[in-house]
Specification:
CATH superfamily: P-loop containing nucleotide triphosphate hydrolases
Order of helices and strands: EHEHEHEHEHEH
Strand order of the largest sheet: 1-6-5-2-4-3
Strand content: 15-25%
Protein name: Sec63
Radius of gyration: 16 Å
Keywords: Hydrolase
EC number: 3.6.4.12
Number of helices: 6
Oligomer: single chain
CATH class: Alpha Beta
Organism: Stylosanthes scabra
GO molecular function: DNA helicase activity; hydrolase activity
CATH topology: Rossmann fold
Helix content: 25-40%
């Protein structure tokens, strides 16, 4: 889904509803929330470390009490390990950092977390039309290619949902075709 809506119109709420829909898979038949840590990952990509940190604080406050583990993955957060990433439910990152992590892997842990990605949230997607857009384009392309691999048919990545938002998307049809064809 690609959404173009003005600032303050609820794009973040849309992201949160998508996260809650994903987490609803952990509700058992008797209505109990039985969370399996790190098994269904959300990746939130924002263009700046400041926006990543803002969402990290907000989502830790809202989702932390449910045991949902959020992890910042930016150029300044070098304290992550493959274990942190494996256990994370929501990875909040910048395009450049996630491109590097998904392109080169993580020391000692590889990309074992990658197949657990079930939801990709892209904030400020209009940056695809920016010089920094190459990293974001590489991420979307990589996820689309890997998700089609028959070897991961039973993994969450094979059914990954992409949601991209921005206040300004002059070429929304082209963007929709790129992300979802």
């Amino acid at each position: 889904m690609v959404i173009s809506a003005p600032t303050g119109s609820g794009k973040t709420v849309l992201f949160e509803l998508c996260i809650l829909r994903l987490l609803s898979r952990f509700i058992s038949a008797n209505g109990r929330f039985i969370h399996v840590k790190g098994s269904l990952k959300t990746v939130y990509i924002a263009p700046s470390k400041a926006l990543v940190q803002e969402k990290l604080r907000d989502w830790n406050q809202k989702l932390g009490p449910w045991g949902i583990n959020c992890l910042e993955l930016t150029g300044d957060s070098e304290s992550y390990t493959s274990r942190n990433i494996h256990d994370a439910d929501i990875i909040l990152t910048t395009p450049e950092k996630f491109d590097a992590v998904s392109r080169y892997g993580i020391e000692g842990g590889g990309l074992s977390f990658f197949s657990d990605i079930a939801l990709l949230l892209i904030d400020e997607v209009h940056l695809l039309n920016d010089p920094r857009g190459a990293a974001l384009e590489a991420i979307v392309s990589r996820i689309k290619i890997v998700s089609c691999n028959p070897k991961i048919k039973s993994n969450p990545l094979s059914q990954v949902r992409l949601v991209a938002v921005s206040a300004t998307i002059p070429n929304i049809e082209d963007l929709g075709n790129f992300c979802f064809d």
